[in-house]
C-alpha cells in the first residue's frame, strides 16, 4: 500500500505533529511508500530536511500545485504564491533526493493551449518527476461559477481538452510519470463542463485519443 496524504496542505503543521502523522502511517511492511500533497509555500527547510530522512526509510513522493506558470492567471485564481516559490520548493526537495509530482490545470479562464504547453515544459525544466493533469471544473458556490454564468469565460469541450493534453504529454521525457490525465468534480456541485461527469466515457475517449502510434 501507499499511504496518501491527499486533501489540503499536508505539510502545514508543526514538525512535531507531522512526524507523528507520517511515522504512524508506516505501520507495517505492507506500506511501501508515502505520497504527500502540499503547497510549495508550506515547505520550511526543517520540514524538507525531515522529508529527506523519511525518504531514506520509504518511497516518498511530494505533490506540489503549480496549476499554471501564467502569473496573471495565478493571481486571478488566487493561487497565493509566485512561480519562483514553486521553483525553489522543487529545487530543495530534489536536493534531498525526494521525487516531485506537479499538478497542472488545463483550461483555466482565458488561457490558451500555449499556456498549458508552457506550464508543462516549465515543470519539466524545473525537474519534476511526475505530473498530474487536471481539467478545470466549475463548481456551485464559487466565484468562478459566477463568472462562468456571466459569460466571462467558457470551458473546454472533451475533444479540445484531449488535444491539448496529448500535446502536453508529448513534451514529457520518457522517465516522467503521468499520474493523472483528468479529474472529475462532485456531480452534485458540477456546473461545467458536464461531459466530465461521465468518467467512464471520458477515460475511454482519452485512452483511445492518446495513442501515440501515429
Topology:
Layout: E1 2-5, H1 15-25, E2 33-38, H2 45-55, E3 59-67, H3 71-76, H4 83-95, E4 99-106, H5 113-126, E5 130-135, E6 138-139, H6 143-149, H7 158-169, E7 177-180, E8 190-192, H8 199-209
Parallel strand pairs: 1-2, 2-3, 3-4, 4-5, 5-7
Antiparallel strand pairs: 6-8
Which descriptors would you attach to this protein?
single chain, about 210 residues, alpha/beta, 6-stranded parallel β-sheet, two-stranded antiparallel ribbon, 8 helices, about 40% helix, about 20% strand
Describe the protein's architecture and organization:
There is one protein chain. By secondary structure, the chain is of the alpha/beta class. The protein contains 8 helices and 8 strands; from the N terminus they run E-H-E-H-E-H-H-E-H-E-E-H-H-E-E-H. The chain has helices at residues 15-25, 45-55, 71-76, 83-95, 113-126, 143-149, 158-169, 199-209; strands spanning 2-5, 33-38, 59-67, 99-106, 130-135, 138-139, 177-180, 190-192. The strands form 2 sheets. A 6-stranded parallel β-sheet has the order 1-2-3-4-5-7. The protein has a two-stranded antiparallel ribbon with strand order 6-8. Helix 5 runs parallel beside helix 7 (158-169).
Quaternary assembly: single chain
Biggest sheet overview? 6 strands, parallel
Question: What fraction of the residues are assigned to beta strands by DSSP?
Answer: 15-25%
Number of helices: 8
Summed up:
This protein has 214 residues and is α/β, with parallel strands linked by helices. Helix content is 40%, strand content 20%.
